[in-house]
Amino acid sequence: MTVPTETIAAIATAPGEAGIAIVRISGPESLAIADALFRGHGPKPSARGARACAYGTLASRAGGAERTVDEVVVLVMRAPHSYTREDVVELQCHGGALAARRILRAVLEAGARPAEPGEFTRRAFLNGRLDLLQAEAVLDLVRARSERAAQAAVEQLRGRLSDRFNGVYDALLGAAADLEASLDFPDDELPPTVMPDILARIGHARADLTELLRTWDEGHLLREGALVVISGRPNVGKSTLLNALLGMNRAIVTDVPGTTRDTIEEIMVLDGVPLRLVDTAGLRDTDCHIEREGVNRALKYVESADIHVRVVDGSLPMDQTERSQIAGLPAERCVIVLNKADLGTAVRPAEFAGRAAVTASLLNGEGLAAIREAIAARLHVSTAAPPHAVISERHRRAIMEAGAQIDEGVGLLETGDESNIVLAAAQVRAALETLGAVTGRVYHDELLNSVFSRFCVGK
Ligand SMILES: Nc1nc2c(ncn2[C@@H]2O[C@H](COP(=O)(O)OP(=O)(O)OP(=O)(O)O)[C@@H](O)[C@H]2O)c(=O)[nH]1
Ligand SMILES: [Mg+2]
Q1: Which of 137, 145, 247, 313 is the most exposed place for a label (fewest CB within 10 A)?
Q2: Does the beta carbon of 234 lie inside 6 Å of ligand 1?
Q3: Ligand 1, residues 233, 243, 259: which to mutate, most atoms within 8 A of Cβ?
Q4: Mean pLDDT in runs of 10 for the chain (459 residues)?
Q5: How far is the CA of 235 from the centre of ligand 1 (A)?
């Protein structure tokens, strides 16, 4: 694959009102474009040093007469000391809706083409500055919604996850090479220690992969956020709980059962873990088709919840239907809130053996801290330990596939039949191919497209 040589440009900052905005240019023509557009004292941008910075204005000659587009600060970063390892010019201009767009237009008229989503990072990858795991970490960092998620992304960006994958890859590569070399020995002359040694090394690599799989739970929580669904009968205080957890009056609270009809989803952070907190319509049979749709939506969310928060009016005796509904929720991922304790306590936490049950009076904010703690405890993230590099869904699938290929290979070797060695080696090679696609040692356009299309333009 040839490394692209077109010069690309994009606005690198978010749209909207802001102090400054940045237009980024990368590629062989970057400096020539900067020279053509920049007006300032002293040498042209291309005649300045490796990491130069200059103040001036940016001119456009579109439509004939030259006019000033904006004041700018030009940053010059010469290959290979730049994000993409190409010549990069960044133009800092005033923020706001238009300044950066006008500058980008002038840059495109001067010969650059608009960058595609993630194209700068894609070039950083193709030019060997980042591996694919690190490139993905850039996106995780941009998207991080909590301190802990950001820290995990930084660990990955610094290569922690790459090191672990590379360790497994190298071990398997050595084993595959030795397997293939063993084929050169004449029958019966293979030293007896060779095969057990190879099997042991493959076994270690396999165990490392299993270990990595365990980081998926936390990775999933940090990247996507844990889906925490508040459910229960009408009027028990679900919306009151949502508002209390968010610390704002997000949902309408009234004493009319059936107040909440649609699902209400908000993001919040609990102990460094992002949560998608969802308030739902009260669960009951109803003739109103609008409310029925709300109940259906509620049930859909309940199905896919990571954590269930089931709110109950604890001042009234609980009927059998509600008891059996609660019994149907997974104990280790469920928090029961016995609300309205100010009106009486007909239901007690002790009745829910093996489950987290909290008595609360949410009207007064009582029990809120205990509810937070109970939710956090069920996220299974040790917030005391710093986040380690955690795998994503793409990595998980590759590990499962590589694991199956390795198991297949090991199974063949364990038959002790020498005619199976070739097949076993092929399986280990296949596993290498699968793992290589995780770090990007092995890649194809489709893989890169699927990774980088998730990025924003300008990154
Ligand atoms: N006494 C008392 N009333 C409460 C408490 N928590 C909530 N309420 C009241 O109960 C009523 C229903 O509260 P909501 O939060 O709207 O209940 P909900 O479960 O969202 O109800 P639906 O949306 O209709 O399903 C409101 O009048 C609240 O003020 C509490 O701890 N004690
Ligand atoms: Mg409600």
Answers
A1: 247
A2: yes
A3: 259
A4: 76 91 97 96 91 93 86 96 96 92 95 96 96 95 90 93 96 94 82 91 96 90 92 97 96 95 94 92 92 94 95 96 93 96 95 94 95 92 75 95 97 90 95 96 93 90
A5: 5
Q: Are 261 and 281 in contact (CB under 8 A)?
A: yes
Host domain of residue 311: 223-378
Is 237 a member of any domain?
A: yes
Q: Is the CB of 236 inside a 6 Å radius of any atom of ligand 1?
A: yes
Q: How far apart are CA 50 and CA 29, in angstroms?
A: 16
Tell me, yes or no, whether 450 lies in a domain.
no
CATH of the domain at 358: 3.40.50.300
Instruction: Pick the closest to residue 304 from 327, 331, 276 (CA basis).
Output: 276
Residues in contact with 153: Cβ distance below 8 Å, sequence separation at least 6, in sequence order: 137, 138, 140, 141, 144
Q: Is residue 459 domain-resident?
A: no
The ligand minimizing its distance to the Cα of 259 is 1
Residue 449 covered by a domain: no
Vertex 116: Cα angle to 110 and 122 (nearest 5):
110
Instruction: Report the distance separating Cα 151 and Cα 195, nearest Å.
Output: 42
**Integer distance in angstroms from the first to the last C-alpha of the chain?**
22
Cα 276 to Cα 94: distance, rounded to the nearest angstrom: 35
For residue 384, what are its two tokens? Answer: 């005391």
Does ligand 1 come within 6 angstroms of the Cβ of 261?
no
User: 164 CB less than 6 Å from ligand 1?
Assistant: no
Measure the CA–CA gap between 284 and 276, rounded to whole angstroms: 24
Which three-class secondary structure state does DSSP give residue 344? coil
Q: Could you give the angle at which helices 160-182 and 421-439 cross, rounded to 10 degrees? A: 160
What is the number of structural domains in the chain?
3
| Smallest CA separation from ligand 1 atom 4, residue | 363
Burial 174-207 (b: 16+ CB within 10 A, else e): ebbeebeebeeeeeeebeeeebeebbeebeebbe
For ligand 1, whether the C-beta of 240 sits within 6 Å is: yes
Ligand nearest to the CA of 235: 1
Q: pTM score > 0.90 for this model?
A: no
Residue 281 CA: which ligand is closest?
1
The ligand 1 atom nearest the CA atom of 339: 31
Contacts 24+ apart (CB under 8 A), 320-326: 322/233, 325/283, 326/352, 326/355
Separation CA 212–CA 220 (nearest Å): 13
Q: Which of 357, 378, 399 is the last residue of a domain?
A: 378
